Amino acid sequence: MSTKPKAVVLLSGGLDSTTTAAIAKSDGFAVYGLSFQYGQRHKVELEAARKIAVQMGLEDQKTIQFDLRAFGGSALTSDIAVPKHDSAAEMEHGIPVTYVPARNTIFLSFALAWAEVLQANDIYIGVNAIDYSGYPDCRPEFIQAYEQMAALATKAGVEGTQRLTIHTPLIKLSKAQIIRRGLDLGVDYSATVTCYDPSPRGEGCGHCDACLLRLKGFEENGIADPAPYQKNATVKG
Q1: Looking at residue 204, what DSSP letter applies?
Q2: CATH homologous superfamily for 6-220?
Q3: Which residues pair with 64 in a beta bridge?
């Protein structure tokens, strides 16, 4: 059993969350990865999360199951088509249909519960307010409000035995800066799955917002994205 302080890290299997887990480890925490099967379009990201947890030597990794397809309202949890573009410059402004209502609020609630059981004071989440798709639950204001709420929401918080900190190490970084930080920490990005609409083997489409932002980040670092893409994908940022 590690003597390091414990941290719960939201781990989707994507580029941002994997970088966040690497940062938490470099910050000196024993990392507990938390993933979700919430009715999203594909499960390949969860397979990636499990592999990454082993590869990075996390203390534990759990996958929580619930079904947001019961509500729908998003291209990731219903039959709404995922928007595709030829370049990042063509991405739509505003909140896109890939936004999943209240997703990070729900995810952080599970993380808060596990952190209390683990007697952990720290949660890491890879939200980003620079190169992102306009999601309201990725903004600093949301994280600050959630942290304040968390202090009132648990037995440990009320009794003063837990003062939770929600770490957002990527929130002010561009995608290129996130990738550079991960590379410096030895992250294997070939193992990550970012695409909103990948093939059954986890190959990126190369045209959804997630792929385009990722490709742009690698291009700005002057290196090729090591992740696999579908043969008909035009792989450029």
Answers
A1: B
A2: HUPs (3.40.50.620)
A3: 36
